[in-house]
Amino acid sequence: MRRAAFRPSLAVRLLMLAAAYAPLLLLLAILDSFQQPVVRWAMAAVCVAGVGFTVLFIFVVIPRRNATPEQVYEAKPREGEALRFFATYVVPFFVSETAPPTHRWALAVYLVLIAALYLRNDLYFANPLLALLGFRVFELTRRDRGMVLVLSRAWHLAPGQVIDLVLLGGWIAVQRPTRRITREAA
């Protein structure tokens, strides 16, 4: 029997984190910010792997998972999540280009700490790549007044609407797309 709820493995969460940091990693690699060829190519590789794996996870793995129907009691968009996460590394990025090498390595330590918080607190929803792929974050209130954050490609979630959710762990879920019925299948 397959479980409806699951928490992605550490490897999955690391690759989603890499995708969240992809814009920064790409910029740092292009600008050769650490002036180390190995570091430069490692950042580029992590960027590509994170983006590729996140797209695969969202569009191939999630649709195949068991979903739980959930009736929307209330849904509020939380549009600023990806921008807030993006800001945690954009501001330090601009500082890094004018800073001496020791400050750049301090930035790397800062980014590792942010990454640890991202992984520890399951902040999948604060991912700029998912926003670029058309996902919105909704704070969904259930009938029992429980709350779940939903990643959805829908523009609006209406009260009373029933949606299929794939739980990513605890209080974060992805709305599984509805399957289209083709003429051949009908």
Automatic annotation (TrEMBL):
<keyword id="KW-0472">Membrane</keyword>
<feature type="transmembrane region" description="Helical">
    <location>
        <begin position="12"/>
        <end position="31"/>
    </location>
</feature>
<keyword id="KW-0812">Transmembrane</keyword>
<feature type="transmembrane region" description="Helical">
    <location>
        <begin position="43"/>
        <end position="62"/>
    </location>
</feature>
<feature type="transmembrane region" description="Helical">
    <location>
        <begin position="154"/>
        <end position="174"/>
    </location>
</feature>
<protein>
    <submittedName>
        <fullName>Uncharacterized protein</fullName>
    </submittedName>
</protein>
<keyword id="KW-1133">Transmembrane helix</keyword>
